[in-house]
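The freezer alarm interrupted the setup, so I double-checked each line after restarting. Inputs confirmed:
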Amino acid sequence: MNDTRIPSQDINVARLPTYVFGSHSMMWWGTMGLMLIEGTVFAITVVVYFYLRSHSQTWPVDPPPDLLWGSLNTLILLASMVPNQLAKRAAERERRQHARWWLLACLAFALAFLIVRVFEFSALNTRWDANAYGSVVWMLLALHTTHLITDTIDTAVLAVLMFTGPLEGKRFVDVSENAMYWYFVVGSWLPIYAVIYWGARL
Amino acid sequence: MSADANNPVLDRSWSDPPGLIGWLSAINHKTISIRFMLTTMGFFAAGGVLAMIIRLQLARPENKLVGPDFYNQLFTMHGTTMMFLFAVPVMQAVATYLVPLMIGSRGIAFPRMNAFAYWIFLFGGLMLYIAFILDIGPDAGWFAYPPLAGPEYSPGKRMDFWAQLITYTELSGLLEAVILITTIFKMRTPGMTLNRMPLFVWTMLVTSFMVMFAMPSVMLASTALITDRLVGTHFYNPAEGGDVLLWQHLFWFFGHPEVYLIFIPPLGFMSSIIATFARRPIYGYPVMVLAVIATAFLAFSLWVHHMFATNVPELGKSFFTAASAMIAIPTAAQIFCWIATLWAGRLNFRTPMLFALSFFFILTIGGLTGIMLASVSLDLQVHDTFFVVAHLHYVLIGGAVFPLFGAFYYWFPKFTGRLMSERLGKWNFWLMFVGFNVAFFPMHIAGLRGMPRRVYTYPAEMGWNLLNLVSSIGAAILAVGILLFVINVLVSRRRGEVAGADPWGAGTLEWATASPPAPGNFAQPVVVASRFPLWSPGGVAGVVRGLADDRREVLVTSVLDAVPNHRAMMPESSIWPFVSAVAVTVLFVGSIFTPWAVVWGAVLATPPLIVWFWPKRKATQMNLEREVKP
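Predicted 3D structure, all chains:
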């Protein structure tokens, strides 16, 4: 760069922060990417459900699933957004104490949800190997459960980390992104719930 | 612009540790990418050997070299290898090397996940080939249609290995897509707005988004196939309300976009090579970008044209005919832009350029037969004949393999510091070009004369003898050409002409650093002010100061305009991605034999994933000392 007429546009970045929250962080993009992939999986599975339904004389082939456990779980999942939001807020304000306890609260909700999920499977009134209807219903519920388990483990690991350390600022970013992922688990459940429980009734 | 100065402190902090453990712990994007490229090229060679056996078998009528059962495995393995273990992943492999360099970054996003994706890919491919050697290679075609691939007509484990291979490769591909998107959106050097991004980076961005929408479909489809086979679900079983065409919809909703996952990155190779060897910027940059995006959208509305021979509604077929013809428009726009670039340039016919130019000839023929096949009536006539084999090889080899080889010649000096031999390169190119056309052009005619695909032999009186013999001779010439490439790589790696930073006089940032680049890529990251920063005066407007050299610090910038936002600390090298990949492999392979493997495999895989994430005290302490809060 021996051309002296061009003013140099050197940039000094030494004072920039070493971590940030939200869409400026790389973690946010990574999480969004995973959500997009998994959302596509859910969407395609729902399409499969209706594709099979359009090729079937009777639907559902077996009696529709009982409403009780699935609806109860939907309420639990909706309620879990409260501690989740509070954990997210505590993380973004870097309040370790708050983050700890709200993460534990999230965990309690997740475990409650998983327990009720067991009853949900038993109240589906069909088996995966009974017919194509049973297969796709089990596939939908199993896929969602996988995400639930993954995020429960995630939340547990972060909760332990909040108690034991080692901690630095960007771990709070992880907590915040974990909360965002939980919103995805909740948000994807609502259409899946509608399909499994009401797609068999309408 | 000279290569930037040595910086031993920076080199040390970005180096992977030595020794065997260090080798398994490597996460530097260039190291992983080189391994990834070598692995995919290894599978390319294996798939090529399978193809040669196929051509030997078909060289004369009623040949007894291989039997029908092994032949079924041969063409299934050939297709599966080339599509899932070579063509898609090799593009991502090359991209994980080049993208960070082209955007002026010191590293890649989520480097440990990048290593994990590589190991998963390697283990998946090895699993398939071990199964093949043990005579449990898949044998129902690379697209595995049920009912043939289902439990009733494919008993045994052969198709289960195929279905699990899909899980492996798509997992790897999806992770790479997330890595590349994050890298491209967040790690561009200051001044590199989206509007100044090299076209290859654009093609990888678009490809990665396509991966995220296409690959879930085949993953779901193959999971449903394997549960049909192993635990008695009925997705594809018409007797219990399932539907075999459901498979075809799910598979081709992935499978047609997959052609573009293979084809779009080479458009970026083309743009890089043509700009350099025509010695001018690509004409019509906005058109090029918009054309790639348009191609991506259209690619998702073509899948039914693989199903014209099924009972989908006729009106639907007309729609897909129109969409199939329409995709020629953005492709043509790009070809015209390249022609305009060449027209106005001062051409330099080096080997990379020859490979790039051959694209115009071969792909155009493949594209023309593609337009023919978009017509339902013609498609029905030649369905499942060698005409389709000829078409798809013209598109894929012309559209992807030739530009890819050009790309290897072009970036080899960056990877190794040495140029490949031009003399061998010319021989390599012409043998491949002639061999390819001699091998595949006669297949058009064989197909029109009624020769079906996937038959292990044919009677002498069908009139296909000469055509097949010529094809086999062509395949042998093509193979010799590819062998010359291997020899050229081996010889030039040690004895090639020393390249220096920018042997071709190219204009993009990967040529601004040493060849091969130091572990930290850029001792002095730059601020750019043009699309070809090394060509235009003032293209490199300044330098970025204030990034730490004694640790793995990268600059994170904004999505649209690459305005500096914060400094992120990249992780240390770690063996846990490797260990996790081993554990996940136990899960995947185990689940072929018992569904419970999903449970205990998950229990096995969880601890390494947690250890992988768990922060180290020392590293945390160091980060805390220099932490700057938002």
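Quick read of the result. Chain B touches chain A through 75 residues (CB under 8 Å).
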